[in-house]
């Protein structure tokens, strides 16, 4: 099963919801469409499901154009935001619905329903009504219902957004395990970057109706292509500068009064060109007296907070305020407001990103 | 509601007065139906059930009750089927023309029934429907449509459109969607509408006076004639039965609503 989107676009009057999305989803992939609200992620999912008609572009399933096929012909499983369980049907009847629609015999239906409920550990609740279940259980019923007819593709629309944090983490685990076990293709939509990173093989980051970057979570986090990606996926410091030296393997980037040593990575730069550096807070180290690094900077703590696993510190420096994350268990100093510290980071720590000006 | 203002003596007493005003005219027929006199009056010496015996022994009254029942049943079926279909169509096609149609559908509630009755009289004379049970069923069915349209539209407004998406996504065609998802969800609204349409036909008099004469003699019409021609207290006994029956229907409606909300 391969799903391909070719220049898929949707506009409502003069408002462009999705602007030419190209995407290829291979068999067994867990893909997440990640973006802030209004970025067009739900519209893309809705076009894949067939509920929204694209303004232009095509959708191919295994090479066959399905752009104009109605949703009931596409045979995709879908889990809706808020689950959309049928309130007048019991859990078992809900799960049996797609089978009943296909005219499956009662005996066969019962067997499949039992299997699907076992898969999500809800067999005990088969005779309950949806409203008698907790949010997490309803969510699992929706999953069982979407998977019971063995669709090649499962679409998930913010499946975990209605749950509290702890339950969400639990269901993330389950969802990932389920994906591994059944090996089908999942396409998930969310605005939660943690969820996207922990679940997916591949993440597409969207903003203003466009796919900004597509890749494995780690690649996106380590090599964000633009300021928006770096800012949306985790936290980052941004340092605008100018290329002053083109050395062997490293660049000299002038940021204010500071000359920063920086590896160019994949970016193509030329002497005198303006660049934007993205520097993750956890890649800045607080240096001891004897420590040294490629880039060293004097700083003064302006505010800090304790987060259990670590400290989050904001320090004023010659290049402006920097945010840094320091693990608590081997902190070289205990933060205090006004404390003078030395910060350092290596030449490969920061990434040169395109300034799409959507971050701030 | 917690935290709300408690009603004061003024609100309490006006509330009580309004309730009495609503209920007293209905309650007065109860003692009148048990009068020991020969004419429509309150009992003088003792209570008597003679007029109830009279009622159950009278073939005319019984024929009228049966006729009213079958007419109301037919009218209810007509109103429920057309009202529900219309409400679903209007819900699906939310356009300007549909809003105009919706206003038209409520017309029987707004136009005085005597105006409606005069109009019906003209048409029914052409179509030879005067003094026919079918004619009364059609008239009552059409004027009962607004009740169904209102209750079913209300039920549809509460219908979660994602349920339809979910059903379609799982492969359901239009007829499966209607039978298995939409109709079960709006059934309480349909039942409510049916009960109101039934009551509407059951006690409708004005239209019947115009389009029926000898062969169709519904219960409200027999009561009306009884008052005009003689002051037989049997009418009060009939009225008590009518009230009793209507209250039963309203209780059924309450039960339906409670089931839907609970």
UniProtKB/TrEMBL annotation, chain A:
InterPro entries: AAA+_ATPase, ABC_SmlMolc_Importer, ABC_transporter-like_ATP-bd, ABC_transporter-like_CS, Mo/tungstate-bd_C_term_dom, NA-bd_OB-fold, P-loop_NTPase, Transp-assoc_OB_typ2. GO terms for biological process: quaternary ammonium group transport. The keyword Zinc does not apply. One of its GO terms (cellular component) is ATP-binding cassette (ABC) transporter complex. Residues 3-233 form the ABC transporter domain. It holds the Pfam family ABC_tran. PROSITE patterns: ABC_TRANSPORTER_1, ABC_TRANSPORTER_2. Gene3D superfamilies: 2.40.50.100, Nucleic acid-binding proteins, P-loop containing nucleotide triphosphate hydrolases. Coiled coil: none annotated. One of its GO terms (molecular function) is transmembrane transporter activity. Keywords: ATP-binding, Nucleotide-binding, Transport. This is ABC transporter ATP-binding protein. It comes from Rhodovarius crocodyli.
From TrEMBL, chain B:
Its main location: membrane. Residues 65-253 form the ABC transmembrane type-1 domain. It is found in: Cell inner membrane; Cell membrane. GO terms for cellular component: plasma membrane. The keyword Cell membrane applies. It is a multi-pass membrane protein. Keywords: Cell inner membrane, Cell membrane, Membrane, Transmembrane, Transmembrane helix, Transport. The keyword Transmembrane applies. InterPro entries: MetI-like, MetI-like_sf. GO terms for biological process: transmembrane transport. The chain crosses the membrane at residues 9-32, 69-91, 103-124, 136-159, 180-199, 234-256. Belongs to the binding-protein-dependent transport system permease family. PANTHER family: INNER MEMBRANE ABC TRANSPORTER PERMEASE PROTEIN YDCV. This is ABC transporter permease.
């Amino acid at each position: 099963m391969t799903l391909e989107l070719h220049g898929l676009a949707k506009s409502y009057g003069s408002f462009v919801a999705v602007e030419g999305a190209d995407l290829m989803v291979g068999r067994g992939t867990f893909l997440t469409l990640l973006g802030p609200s209004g970025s067009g992620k739900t519209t893309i999912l809705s076009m894949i499901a067939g509920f929204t008609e694209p303004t232009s572009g095509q959708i191919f399933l295994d090479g066959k154009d399905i752009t104009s096929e109605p949703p009931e012909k596409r045979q995709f499983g879908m889990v809706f935001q808020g689950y959309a369980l049928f309130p007048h049907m019991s859990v078992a009847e809900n799960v049996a619905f797609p089978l009943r629609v296909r005219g499956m015999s009662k005996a066969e239906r019962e067997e499949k329903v039992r299997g699907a409920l076992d898969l999500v550990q809800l067999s005990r609740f088969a005779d309950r009504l949806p409203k008698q279940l907790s949010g997490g259980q309803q969510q699992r019923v929706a999953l069982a219902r979407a998977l019971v007819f063995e669709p090649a593709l499962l679409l998930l629309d913010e499946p975990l957004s209605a749950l509290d944090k702890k339950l969400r983490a639990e269901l993330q685990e389950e969802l990932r395990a389920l994906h591994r076990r059944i090996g089908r293709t999942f396409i998930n939509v969310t605005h939660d970057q943690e969820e996207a990173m922990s679940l997916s093989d591949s993440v597409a980051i969207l903003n203003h109706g466009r796919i900004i970057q597509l890749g494995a979570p780690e690649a996106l986090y380590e090599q964000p292509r633009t300021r928006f990606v770096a800012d949306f996926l985790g936290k980052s410091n941004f340092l605008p500068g100018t290329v002053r030296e083109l050395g062997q393997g490293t660049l000299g980037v002038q940021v204010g009064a500071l000359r920063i040593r920086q590896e160019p990575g994949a970016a193509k730069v030329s002497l005198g060109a303006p660049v934007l550096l993205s520097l993750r807070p956890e890649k800045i180290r607080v240096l001891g007296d004897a420590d040294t690094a490629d880039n060293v900077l004097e700083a003064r703590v302006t505010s800090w907070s304790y987060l259990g696993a670590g400290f989050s510190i904001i320090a004023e420096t010659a290049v402006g305020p920097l945010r840094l994350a320091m693990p608590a268990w081997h902190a070289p100093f205990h933060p205090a407001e006004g404390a003078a510290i030395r910060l350092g980071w290596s030449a490969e720590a920061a990434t040169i990103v395109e300034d799409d000006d959507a971050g701030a | 509601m917690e935290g709300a203002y408690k009603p004061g003596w003024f609100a309490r007493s006006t509330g009580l007065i309004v309730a009495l005003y609503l209920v007293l005219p209905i309650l007065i027929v109860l003692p009148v139906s048990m009068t020991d006199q020969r004419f429509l009056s309150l009992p003088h010496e003792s209570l008597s059930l003679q007029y109830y015996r009279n009622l159950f022994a009278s073939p005319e009254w019984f024929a009228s009750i049966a006729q009213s029942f079958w007419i109301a049943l037919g009218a209810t079926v007509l109103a429920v089927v057309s009202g529900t279909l219309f409400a679903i169509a209007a819900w699906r096609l939310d356009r300007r023309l549909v809003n105009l149609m919706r206003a038209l559908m409520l017309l029987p509630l707004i136009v005085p029934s005597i105006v409606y009755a005069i109009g019906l009289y003209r048409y029914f004379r052409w179509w030879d429907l005067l003094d026919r049970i079918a004619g009364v069923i059609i008239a009552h069915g059409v004027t009962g449509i607004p009740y169904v349209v209102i209750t079913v539209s209300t039920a549809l407004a509460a219908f979660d459109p994602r349920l339809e998406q979910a059903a379609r996504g799982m492969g359901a065609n239009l007829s499966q969607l209607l039978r298995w998802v939409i109709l079960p969800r709006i059934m309480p609204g349909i039942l409510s509408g049916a009960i109101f349409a039934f009551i509407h036909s059951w006690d409708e008099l004005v239209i019947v006076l115009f389009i029926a004469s000898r062969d169709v003699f519904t219960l409200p019409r027999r009561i009306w004639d009884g008052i005009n021609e003689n002051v037989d207290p049997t009418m009060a006994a009939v009225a008590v039965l009518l009230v009793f029956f209507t209250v039963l229907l309203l209780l059924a409606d309450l039960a339906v609503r409670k089931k839907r909300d609970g």
